[in-house]
Amino acid sequence: MSPGDIYTDDSADEELYDNSDYEEEDNFEDVLMKKLPLNNFYAILDNNTDYVIAENNICNGYVSTSYPNANEFHELCRRLVYKLKNFSGIKAQCTNIQKEKFCDYLNYWLGNQIININPKSNNIKLIGNLFDVISTTFVEEKCTCKTDKFSNHSFTKMKEFFDYTENIEGINNLNESLKTLRGGYYCNYILKAVKSYNEIIEKDSCPDNSCEYYAELENFRTKFFHLLTSLKSKCPNDINISCIRITKEKYHESCTTLKHTYGDSQNASPNDQHTGDSNSVVKIVTSVCVLSGLFFLSSILYKFTTFGSWVHQRISRKEKIWDNTEEEIYQLENTSFIDNAHSYKKRHNIVYHASVNY
């Protein structure tokens, strides 16, 4: 090494720049969620590095440049065409997805892309038409684009509960323990889903078929109750996932006060609240009974044992002391008063010495 060279420790550099652990922590949620079939499917479609920029000609015929966000829709069109034409390769990476689910998965992915661009654009119907044309050739199962949902202002809620429904099933099918730190993440995801569902039931936001996402809400409810026993057995004991509302006023019968990983809590069922009120009544009654018993016992001791005479002596002694004290105070006060009252009769000799100045 020459004097002008700077010494470098390659091993130190490797240790300094080995950020694999930190990157894994940064992507902790993404890594875990991609283990679930639906999220893995979304991730594959979101991957922009696995396709070449092509399909300009076909997209030019389906995306109008006269509508807002034309460039974004044109890019989405090219991605969509490439993904659909290579759909067999995507399916090969998603062997744990039932074939009849692919169409819904595709629609919710596409709808989410459109919502992020412009849900009011006229290009939506044009892209929907292109989707229908290509999917008949490259997607084995019959699949049409549900463009009516994409422009619906409730689409976000539809997708939210569709995702919850599919993901809790994916969590239930994981071949790993959920009673770990990583497993606890999945259980808290279930708590999040239940909380979202409870908020809607509590506010009566989606009461019947007139609600645009009622079907997705009911599908979540049905799937959750079907998997509840299994999911409870998989999650840690301090994560109680069963506090789901049956109605606006009532929780599931197995609901108890929740204490989970993050220290949050949820209210127990109204039945539990009534139990708390009953406990308060019992405590009050118990206190009254104890006081009554003590009073009764004291009465017996006072009348039929030496305890009564002892108490009587103590009381008499205190009364005598108090009477003597009062008498002394009275005498002192009156003596002072008598002296003061006759003081004017006493003779006082006052001598005055005048001083003369010469």
TrEMBL record:
<dbReference type="Pfam" id="PF05795">
    <property type="entry name" value="Plasmodium_Vir"/>
</dbReference>
<dbReference type="InterPro" id="IPR008780">
    <property type="entry name" value="Plasmodium_Vir"/>
</dbReference>
<protein>
    <submittedName>
        <fullName>PIR protein</fullName>
    </submittedName>
</protein>
